[in-house]
Amino acid sequence: MKTDYTKLIVSKLKRAGKKPVRYKELLRDCKRKHFDIDKFNDTVSAMKRRGEITETKYGFSLGEKKKERRCEVVRINRTFGFVRDLETGADYFVAGKYLMGAMPGDIVSVRVFKGKGESLEGEVTAIEQENYSRFMGEIVSEFGQLKIVPDTMCKSSMSFENPQGLELHEGDKVIAEITHRGKRHSEHSCIITASYGSSMRASSCALCVVEVNGLTPVFPPQVIMEARNVSDYSRINAEIPLRLDLRDVPIFTIDGADTKDIDDAISVRKIKSGYELGVHIADVSHYVLPKSELDNEAFKRGTSVYYANRVIPMLPKELSNGICSLNPGEDRLAFSCIAQLDKQGHITSYKFAKTVIRSRVKGVYSEINEMLEGYNSKSNSVKYADVEDQLPVMLELADILRAGRLERGCPELETLEGKLIIDENDRCVDVVPGTRGRSEEMIEDFMLVANECAARFGFDNKLPFVYRIHEEPSEEKTEGLKQALVQLNIPYKIGQHTTPQDIAAILKQVKDTALAPVVNSIALRSMSKAKYSTEPVGHFGLVLDDYAHFTSPIRRYPDLAIHRIMSDFLRGEKAAEIARRYSKFSYAAADQATKTEITAMEVERSCEDCYKAEYMLDHVDEEFDGIITGVTDFGVFVGLENTCEGLLHIDQMQEGMYKSDGMISLKNYSTGKTYTVGDRIRVKVMGSNVNSGKIDFALADE
Predict the structure, then answer these.
(1) Which residues form the domain of 34?
(2) pLDDT tens, residue by residue, 26-84
(3) One domain, residues 166 and 267
(4) For residue 214, is it within any domain?
(5) Residues facing 623 on adjacent strands
(6) Are 131 and 106 in contact (CB under 8 A)?
(7) Does 1 score more than 70 pLDDT?
(8) Is there a contact between 697 and 683 (Cβ–Cβ < 8 Å)?
(9) How far apart are CA 398 and CA 278, in angstroms?
């Protein structure tokens, strides 16, 4: 008969009342036949962690019953997971053995306790609501039997059923669905629902990532049908008399050479008081009506997703690449923001209007950059003849706007993004650092003006709205930033609360130094995540009181949402009536947009990691120069000049006893050698796993 040590401990402490019981006394009272000291100690530890008992220097007492938290499982790894408190939004780390086999999306009861550090950790005590459980994995062969090793969830291989009779091979990338839950992840039963081919191919892994996250480039038939029905070009002429006609204004677009969904155009001219900036956005809300098939699908998707050389659009191509795309020489319906700015770049007035425009030319960033740098080829002179006179004025205004941002203390964060070079066989053949020219920055400057005006419009007119907000860093993140700066010997002035100006000053100190990439990364991690909200709390990073997303309704649902609200107000509808119809909608749109944006970012990052690993697979045994970007107790992360990043494990370093400070440095106490974030280091590629997107390094031979 098994001994219930929990029951014995509780009984002893109840009899003791308020008097603490020392360990030896507790041990003596709980000893029974076949006593197991290890199990007894494990029970004591578990009860302390759950808060059922407390220990002081005087002994043990019964703990107060703590209310369990209702949480959603947001992420699981092979050895741990994270849950999010549904009431407070706080995230708690949960060790794998305390997850009870919970899957992402599950609603669970969690007992929260203080972990080894300062952060709170959790233990799942019950699964209240199971989510539809799909996961990715790789087919392996064990003693001649095919099994699946999940990409996350657990380290163990799992048996599976194959009801569809899919042809499976060792090394295939697959999606599986859980059919029966066990008490731990390795005890779950599953079936294979789809196979994507070799896990050595980034394209296969990316398709799997996309599918398991519920994304698809394919639209339902009813959505396609509706898109075709509303894409009636003849209706544009009927709409022209009802709109402000701007077809005589020299408006044009600037995008990448391969861009097909062109949703923003610009016009700039000098006026007596300063400048007039026109930002003309595709009037998507004219075609995508509330609660239509198109609208329901766009709401569900929330955003377009871009990875490698592919896009999963929010709207069908009939709209995104067709009637809503501001193609040159074609009449298009637009929603225009026309802003007046003074000579210092401050917005003095603005107006929004439903318009019809005709873009003069499809500008290309690289060509505009050449012209701004003074190189004006004959072909560019011919192509841009109708708008060439605007370029000096545009550059002048953009310089003023950028100077204004610096003056008000906007942090100049510089993040290096990689550009994947994909060949005709869908393989990644190169990774190069992404570049941003002056024209890219200029368009961004102009879009910020329109977005600020849109937020002011919503706030001033007391409309239900979807704002883009960026809150100030939490105290915990502020403290982490301070500790990192101290360890890097970087002086700073930060009070109890971090200000944008504080971060701007720190970044200015390290600009053009070896520490710049690392400090930029640390500063970025110290900030809150931008999100969507119905409350205009402002934007920390841009140092703006008013900010919303107005300029990309083809690829972002929040932009489409506020277009719809603003359009009704401009048609003369009263704010009170708009509030009645759109209040719930704005809350739902903000919440959904935040969720889908997070999913899109995670998918894009995961896919990019797979493609980078595919590229580095051809460079195993080669040496590269890099910079230490992060440290752990088991090694350091190294970023290469091409933006690929990998792990230099302590097993591939000099022998010795290693210990990290968890933030900046890893020290070998046997040799005294210290590896610090920001240090330059030469590494050798030991391996690259396309399936996981992980790259492994060793120290290069000296």
Answers:
(1) 5-62
(2) 888 888 777 888 888 888 887 876 667 878 778 888 876 567 889 999 888 888 999 99
(3) no
(4) no
(5) 684
(6) yes
(7) no
(8) yes
(9) 13
Question: For tokens 């550090």, what's the residue?
Answer: 117
Indicate the residue type of 278. Answer: G
Stretch (H or E) spanning 524 = helix 516-526
In a domain, residue 657? The reply is yes
∠ at Cα 272 (269, 274), nearest 5°? Answer: 60
Predicted TM-score (pTM) of this structure: 0.85
pLDDT for 112-163, tens place per residue? 887 766 678 899 988 888 887 889 999 999 998 999 999 888 888 889 999 9
Render pLDDT for 598-607 as a digit per residue (tens, 0 to 9). Answer: 999 999 999 9
Number of CB atoms found within 10 A of residue 512's CB: 5
Beta bridge partners of residue 135, listed in sequence order: 176
* Three-state SS annotation for 392-439: HHHHHHHHHHHHHHHHCCCCCCCCCCEEEEECCCCCEEEEEECCCCHH
Q: Which two tokens stand for residue 298?
A: 């766009």
Bridge-based pairing of strands 694-699 and 645-649 is parallel
C-alpha triplet 601, 604, 606: angle, nearest 5°: 105
- Domain assignment present for residue 209? The answer is no
- Nearest-Å Rg of the Cα atoms of the chain is 29
Q: Count the domains in the chain.
A: 6
Distances, alpha carbon 188 to alpha carbons 93, 217, 558, in Å: 22, 31, 39
Q: Which two tokens stand for residue 87?
A: 């009431």
One domain, residues 271 and 142: no
Decide if 197 contacts 169 (C-beta within 8 A): no
* Cβ atoms 519, 488 nearer than 8 A: yes
